[in-house]
Amino acid sequence: MALRILAGWSRTRHQLRAGLRRRGFTEAAVEAAIRRLEALRYLDDSAVAAAHVRGRSGRYGPDRLRAELKARGVEDAVVAEVLRHEPGADPESQAASVRRLLVRSLDGGDGDRAVRRAVAAASRRGFDPAVIWRVLRELRMDAEHGSQGPD
User: Fold this and answer.
1) What are phi and psi for residue 108, nearest 5 degrees?
2) Contacts for 94 with CB less than 8 Å, ≥ 6 apart
3) Is 73 helix (H, G, I), strand (E, B) or coil?
4) For the structural domain made of 45-88, what CATH number should be given?
5) With contact defined as beta carbons under 8 Å apart, do 23 and 53 qualify?
6) Which residues, 6+ apart, have CB-to-CB distance to 100 below 8 Å?
7) Which of 48, 58, 134, 149 lies at 20 to 30 Å from 93 by C-alpha?
8) Domain boundaries along the sequence of the chain
9) What is the DSSP code (8-state) at residue 87?
10) Can you give the pLDDT at residue 71?
């Protein structure tokens, strides 16, 4: 049954444990299944977390990714390690992602309202507020100097 649960997509230990419990398995059976699957390398929270981050980085910031991984039951140390090694997690990559988002959001917008909405959208996506405001300042400086700069 544990393999059947894993067959659809990779899951964390927490998700597998919850799935087996919902199906009425005893705690001893659940723990035995988890130990066996980990020994066979079918269950690896670190690999699941890395795949999740790879698939969503660029569109979402580290705060959002961290919250999603925590919701999937990934331990703090694993989350920190995965986010530390993700190529898109560095400040410059985040700034480029925020810049693309803000440029799209502000295109044809109506002043302060458009800025507030764009900043809120970037914040909901989990980008660092300091990065958002830095990029917004850069965009405003670019606009004052008549250039959009590189995406």
Assistant:
1) 75, 10
2) 61, 62, 88, 127, 128, 131
3) coil
4) 1.10.10
5) no
6) 151
7) 48
8) 1-43, 45-88, 91-144
9) G
10) 95
CA dihedral 17, 23, 29, 32 (to 10 degrees): -40
Total-model pTM? 0.76
**How does residue 10 score in pLDDT terms, banded at 50, 70 and 90?**
confident
Supply the DSSP symbol for 96.
H
Write 100-106 long-range contacts (CB < 8 A, 24+): 100/151, 101/125, 101/127, 102/132, 102/135, 102/136, 102/139, 103/139, 103/148, 103/151, 106/139
Alpha helix segments (H runs only) across the chain: 2-8, 13-22, 27-39, 45-56, 62-71, 76-85, 91-106, 112-124, 129-144
Residue 151 has pLDDT above 60, yes or no: no
- Per-residue pLDDT of 55-89, as tens digits, reads 888 889 999 999 999 999 999 999 999 998 887 76
